[in-house]
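Standup, Tuesday
Yesterday: got the pipeline producing structure tokens again.
Today: sanity-check two examples.
Blockers: none.

Example 1:
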Amino acid sequence: MELKKLLQSVQEAYASLLNATVVILDQSFTPVTRVSRMNDLTESILSTFRFSKNFGRLRRAMWVDTDVIGVKSLITPVIVQDEATLFIWAGVFIEEGTKSWIEFFRKEQQHSYPLHLAKVVSLEQMQEKIECIEKMAKICTQLVQSQREKQEYHHRIQLLNSMIQSFSKKKLGVENHLRLFQKIDPSIEFVAYAERISPDKFLMKHAIGEEVKPLRQLLLYSDDPIVKFLSENKQPLVIENAESHLFVSSIFKQKSKPSFFLAYPLIIDDELVGILFGGSFRAKRFTTFQAEKTVQMIASVMTIHLQYEKTLALLDRHLMRLSNLNDMSKVINMANDVDELLHMIGDLAQYLVSSKLVTIVIGNRHHYIKNHLISQEQLDEYINHLEKRCLEGKQSSFLKLNKTPFGFMIEAFFLLSEEINGALAVHVEKEEDLKEAEVYITTLLNFSQERLRKLVEGDHKELVLSYEKEPKELLECLTKREKEVLKQLIQGRSNREIADHLFISVHTVKNHISNIFHKLGVTDRSQLIAMVYKLNYENSRNKD
């Protein structure tokens, strides 16, 4: 209503300037405003005037003939985003020098139009009226644009509000993000999302839209042109007339390719973690104002959501590791052999820090090594250096960060007796993970150091778990799937993680765990872990 009032005011003013009848019509040529300065002649002409569909192609004001011979009117388009959204009709006029000719034809056709109401204009005046009505059209364009921007602003606020509401209620997943993304602008016909699944791979996990269904489960690689561009530039990509663009061709292998294409990088900690895609097979560009900025806002909210999920996953992982560390503290106190205990400590350190290199040395008598990082030559050199520092070390326990050619090593030196020192060295891949790793390693040593000291000195009692069945028989009583679940349990994974890894339900995982506990005669995970180490099951797992 507000826009109509504004258009009416502008129309009244320009009707006076033009000294003519003026009305504004929509795309179907239905009046948007009340007719200004209408008289008997213009009322008669407007009632029979035929508006051509070709008027939709107009880009400037044009003189057009009416049903009355020699009588003309002006038609002017109101252009908004390269589209004629309204039309201004102004009339009527008679070109100077043609009135007598018109009177003659009027008598021949026996029509009684009140032609004295038509304004006679010279060619110069006709040009002036074109310029005047085009100024009116520009003002109308600004009013319509302003109204659209206001409507789109409220629409964007509603979209973002719905996202935030769902986000706060923990109900907004990627699929819902994409559907909201699709509602931003009519030009967005399809949307898709690719998630990083490894350092060099992205998987197209979601694709909404008939034309993009074949993209589901598509693998993108870090050296693909579009992925490389987004990783390096970390800026959105908006491509108009995209059919022949290299980036588009690298994703769409079929003949039909989008004419409008968007790709928004989702960045967390300066790393590309996902890509938001959108576009159209018909539209060439955004059709609404500020749509590009709104898409950027949606992408930002989606990034926040991914960051939130990542934080929850990290917290869940941290709590799970602390739980496993607590369980292992009980298992560690059951160890009867130095090598067995070193094996437990080393495996647990590798699990807690997700490390590719763990080594433990105690004097020059005992070693534990798990290496998936460096060459044997590098490993030998590092261990020799570690042993030397261990033997020459202070008579106290301390933690040291050693920056080596192959990355960061957290080195925890500990004292077992006046004569015997030891060291636990763990590789940490990312610098930002060092503090967390230091806490885990320190806690692990606090749990295990006293038991290790007793075993090294030989001052301990034999703690032997007795089982009715032989180790081999115990393992053989488990099914293949139960053994797979057991492997995951030993790695400290939660029921949900095991289910995802083995592609089974959480309920099925719980059933398998109950069966394992029953067959092996244990009641909780800590007893299970202790039994596995006693059976040396971890060695058979490594061989697998």
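Example 2:
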Amino acid sequence: MTSNEDTKDDVSFDRRVMQAAVRLSLLALLVFWCLRILGPFINPIVAGVVIAIAVQTPYAKLAQVLGGRPKLAAVLLVGVALLVLILPTIALGASLVETTAELSGDFIQDEFKIPPPPEAVADWPLIGERLSELWLGASQNLESALVKLAPYFKDVGLWLVSSMGNLGIGLAMFVVGILIAGALLPNGERAAKLVRKVASVVAGQRGPELADLAASSVQSVTRGVLGVALIQSLLAGLGMLVVGVPAAGLWTLLILILAVMQLPAML
């Protein structure tokens, strides 16, 4: 009798183990496929979460100024962010297209001339003499110089196309991240409570404290990134003003945007 009961217990235990294994396998497969589907959106989702955490303080103040209307505050923040991001990009793109068209027209009509190099260029270390020769040759016969440099232009062109493609993808991802942040901001309190609960399960009693520490760290890093980006853009803008670069203000704003987005490191 005891032997039969032990056998039944073993069979029941084996059945439960098999059921648990099947359930865990199906759950793992479901998680895997969810991650595969969400894979292309992981970066903008993470960016949206970081942006939402970073602007939480000004968002709360804006919502308070608007009479406790969090959705309106989120819409205004998203609208301003998209305008600051998109308008300079469009303006610079149009300016580049116009400049390229003018240069192409001058080149076709043989009106594009390169002045000879200053004598001081030849005295530059390492590259001065070679650069002076190339520059002088281009000023005397531009077509011949372009033929000689054609193999290098091909590699440079491929690099530029790749960089512009990465830049476009980065801008698109950042726009999606801003939209995700706008959707998260009105639900910030509920999301914070959920994160604290998950942190409590993972880290025990110190979980909520660690979650708050992570949020404050994100805000501190964001302030540091903004400060460095502002310094970089101001220095670049001053340099462009000194040398007389056209549309220096737009270029400065674009540099600020790219520095905030950390796109140079991605490129």
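Quick observation on example 2: Residues 142-184 form the longest helix (43 residues). The chain has a mean pLDDT of 78.
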